[in-house]
Structures are given as C-alpha cells and as structure tokens.
Amino acid sequence: VQLAESGGGLVQAGGSLRLSCAASGDIYSTLNLGWYRQAPGKQRSLVARITRKGTIEYGDSVKGRFTISRDDSNHTVYLHMDSLKDEDTADYYCNQGILTNSGVFAEYWGLGIQVTVSS
Questions:
Q1: Around Cβ 8, how many Cβ atoms within 10 Å?
Q2: Residue 61: helix, strand or coil by DSSP?
Q3: Which of 1, 17, 39, 42 lies 20 to 30 Å (CA to CA) from residue 91?
Q4: What torsion, rounded to 10 degrees, do the Cα atoms 102, 103, 104, 109 define?
C-alpha cells in the first residue's frame, strides 16, 4: 500500500489550499482517515480525521476553517483549508487505516507535503 499526497505549496495568508491523499495497492477498504501536521521544532499534531461512518474531529486551531472529506471509491481523503494563517505553515501528513484483501489491518502514513503561508 502506498499513499500519494498532493496539493501543498505556498499561499498568502487568507488564501485556500486543498490537499489530497490517495491510497493505492492491496486495499479492501479504508477505515479511519486523517491529516496531521508538524511545524519545525514542534510535535506532530492532529489536524482532522474522519471515520468510515463520517464522524469528524478537528484540531482546535483549525475548527471553522478546514474541512476534511473522503471518497471511498478512490481511497482518497481531502483537506480543504480556508482562511490560512501563518501558523498553519507546516508539513502535513496523511494517515489512512487500511484493511487489505487478505484481512490485514495497518495504518499507513504519507511522506508529508509542505504548506507554507506567507503574510
């Protein structure tokens, strides 16, 4: 199983970006999906996550600005980010809980994608 993240880059404060993370390989179903971020000198923290049933949790600092969604037909999770602030600058990591066709469950991480917000 591999995760491919896309959509990061440089954006001005107040702008928007959409991150995508597509899983490929031996996949029966994707379960809990999430985005985490890590700024220089800080620990990795939750941005948002969504269960297969659609229950969503957001980190306090992004509530009302970011929206997580999923497309199970494409094993993809999205993060739409609005009203971006300087403090949103970080490396963003996708996390997917995946059940393989052979019945093995594991959590997978993307390599990370950089988001830089300039003021």
A1: 19
A2: helix
A3: 1
A4: 90
